[in-house]
Amino acid sequence: MTTTTKALLEIDNVTKIFRNGGSTTHVLDRLSLTATEGDFVTVIGPSGCGKSTLLKIIAGLDTDYVGSVSIENRKVDRPSQEKGFIFQEHRLFPWLNVESNIAADLSLSKPEVRERVNELIKLVKLEGFEKAYPRQISGGMSQRVAIARALLRKPKVLLLDEPFGALDAFTRAHLQEALLDIWQKNRTTMVLVTHDIDEAVFLSSRVVVMDAKPGRIKSVIPIDLPYPRKRTGTAFQELRTHVLRSLEHEEIEETSYTI
To answer: Rounded to an integer, what distance in angstroms lies between the CA atom of residue 112 and that of residue 107?
Structure first.
């Protein structure tokens, strides 16, 4: 699928090979895709297809690969403020309270930092918990703190590596709603990795389906459902089935997509 909208994120012909002693593992193979500003793109595929590796490459955490990645035409070669990263574990500092965890290495005594932290606390709906410590809040609330911290420096792209995978079903559904609310208010470009087909269809504007060994793009499926979405509707179930069939299909048609 092509678009005339200017690309924000461009991944061009990326190949990744892990070498361990005399053995090699071909993780990603000639993977190309682009995302425009405000996209919500979900990458889904079997274990070992290179989803998390792809996120690390976009984040600049892994630079040992062939090909190129750029954001706003600037080559990605290291971690930077234009990329936020959220992991499955919230990774909060246990000795810091909520507002200090969001501020991270910035001082809350600075008015501009305090204003930004207060804005984010409202965005993730944690008013009243500013002084609470990680041990005093739930796992879902902790992930809200992690999302706020990742948004602190207003990244161009927010990368999410199965951020709700460790949560119970009820909390997961609640956090999915919260993430959509944040995305619709900020319009930060999101790239989410998940194993959950329902999550992919519920959240995304496009779903990238990958195949494994080596990791290649099998298809890109537009999710043309209006927000807010209902998980029980016929259209939702049809798209869910479409994604599932693409995951199960063995034939790879193309490896380059615009999304």
So the answer is: 10
User: How far is the C-alpha of 21 from the C-alpha of 2, rounded, in Å?
Assistant: 41
Say how far apart CA 191 and CA 183 lie, in whole Å: 11
- Planar angle of CA 1, 48, 239, nearest 5 degrees: 40
What is the Cα–Cα distance from 188 to 195, expressed in whole angstroms? 22
Cβ neighbours of residue 107 closer than 8 Å, sequence gap 6 or more: 113
Q: pLDDT digit string (tens) for 144-155?
A: 999 999 999 999
User: Could you tell me the CA-to-CA distances from 205 to 4, 159, 208, 224, 229 in Å, in that order?
Assistant: 16, 15, 10, 7, 12
Q: Give pTM, 2 decimals.
A: 0.91
pLDDT of the residue at 253: 41
Integer CA distances (angstroms), 25 to 9, 19, 40, 210, 250, in order: 26, 6, 30, 17, 20
Measured CA to CA, the distance from residue 12 to residue 8 in angstroms comes to: 13
Q: Which residues pair with 41 in a beta bridge?
A: 191, 206
